[in-house]
Design goal:
Low-confidence stretches: none
Number of helices: 4
Number of domains: 1
Strand content: under 5%
Largest sheet: none
Oligomer: single chain
Helix content: over 70%
Radius of gyration: 15 Å
Structural class: mainly alpha
Order of helices and strands: HHHH
Shape: globular
Distance between the termini: 23 Å
């Protein structure tokens, strides 16, 4: 029972950490879009891969701040590689949908595939290197 509780708390904290990093990425994307006013890039796979790399970089930065796993000795280690990026991607997609309904410009990180890629990159780095 304690392992399940720790796994759930770890999952929630992982989602919050990834979501905070995605908000920073979102703000940076919006600032860059305002400055450069780019056309939509035609290389969607390249953009997806770039989001994963930026997520991995964010994961490396987060290791400087939080070098240890959020909780130790979970028997369900690794579930956060799929669940937390999925939740984070869904939340960011919801934010994108809300902004679109209000007539605001939506950036790529506010869609599920790109938000998932960013969060997965971050989760993977934390999973591999947080000791």
């Amino acid at each position: 029972m304690d392992d399940l509780l720790f796994a759930l708390v770890e999952l929630v904290l992982q989602v919050l950490l990834e979501f905070a990093a995605e908000i920073v990425m979102d703000l940076l994307s919006r600032a860059a879009a305002e400055v450069f006013r780019p056309e939509e890039p035609s290389y969607q796979i390249g953009t997806w891969f770039a989001c994963a790399v930026y997520g991995a970089l964010a994961g490396a930065v987060s290791l400087g701040v939080l070098p240890h796993p959020l909780f130790h000795h979970s028997k369900i280690r690794g579930v956060s590689l799929i669940v937390s990026p999925t939740i984070t991607g869904a939340v960011m997609s919801g934010i994108g949908a809300m902004l679109k309904r209000r007539g605001k410009r939506v950036v790529r990180i506010e869609s599920f595939p790109y938000a998932f890629a960013f969060a997965f990159g971050m989760a993977l780095v934390r999973f591999l290197f947080a000791f």
